Amino acid sequence: MPLTTKFTEAFGIEHPIAQGGMQWVGRAELVAAVANAGALGFITALTQPTPKDLANEIARCRDLTDKPFGVNLTILPTISPPPYDEYRRVIIDSGVKVVETAGSNPAPHLSHFHDNGIKVLHKCTSVRHAVKAQELGVDGISIDGFECAGHPGEDDIPGLVLIPAAAKQIEIPMIASGGFADARGLVAALALGADGINMGSRFMCTVESPVHQKVKEAIVAGDERGTELIFRTLGNTGRVASNSVSREVVRILADGGRFEDVRDLVSGARGARVYETGDLEAGIWWIGTSMGLIDDIPTVGTLLSRIIRDAEHLIEGRLQAMVRSPAGADQ
Ligand SMILES: Cc1cc2nc3c(=O)[nH]c(=O)nc-3n(C[C@H](O)[C@H](O)[C@H](O)COP(=O)(O)O)c2cc1C
User: Fold this and answer.
1) Any idea which UniProt keywords this protein has (predicted)?
2) N or C terminus: which one in the chain shows less Cβ crowding within 10 Å?
3) What Å distances lie between residue 222 and 173, 225, 249, 291, CA to CA?
4) Which domains occur in the chain, in start order?
5) Residue 130: pLDDT band by 50, 70, 90 thresholds?
């Protein structure tokens, strides 16, 4: 039996689970596998070096699935921004019907997407930003707690508080993100007021994920303490795997260093070497605290059917048993 929520109904998918945008990782093979398994995957637009490459990647994903999938558009605070308008045009022209925005205010893009019948799921890390996005008219919120891989924001509020605090004010469909990896997390998110979950790290450690096998094995071997928070002093915190490079970055910045002093260490080219070659010390690579919950490398299909089956058992078994009247209580 499917788990039906406001999120599955509004976004037209079978399971209340999304695979958020992942730089380098969010490519056609993974996104199509997520779509084929009934969840909502996002191709990461900026992983493609040019808008034309994004058009090709979307076409490649279409060849691999006839189910709906989306595109993540990460709006970065950068001095020389990528040509966002051109990426946006490609997304619109491709006929994709859902976009995940993240990183900054989605306002400049929203009407363009809406005018073309595209739903926008905005990912953010604070209640105030979620409320603002709701006021702007986005179609769904992905609320990303401090546990997450990537950019957890600067408030350091974990999901246990962030999700119900957001749920008090968010009326549109809202999914919970950061630290989710299994059925227990999904059921907890639903109990906290969310309509589903978003996962990054967990999907990165599947058969269809394009990262090197050694990266997947490191995730399985790692635990919940295996991350570092870089760029804290720059007000642009990022949660990444703990390795010699990330620890060096933390040290340099804590000693008063500036971005220029770590620019080479954190370069995307070095990070890509980790994913491509499996050299875990080649650069910065992104992973969340949910590493402590990831113990295997399943196919996406196996992972999703396990999460849904276990969630149903948890709700109908363990939780239901707790609310059953004790024998003889009503006599
Ligand atoms: C390797 C990797 C790269 C990521 N890159 C992006 C990105 O480019 N844009 C974005 O919005 N989120 C990015 N994220 C964050 C995920 O979309 C998601 O919000 C996050 O992974 C959720 O936390 P979890 O890893 O605990 O599931 C990335 C996450 C990972 C693991």
Assistant:
1) Dioxygenase, Flavoprotein, FMN, Oxidoreductase
2) C
3) 33, 8, 20, 6
4) 4-211+294-319 (3.20.20.70), 226-275 (no CATH)
5) very high
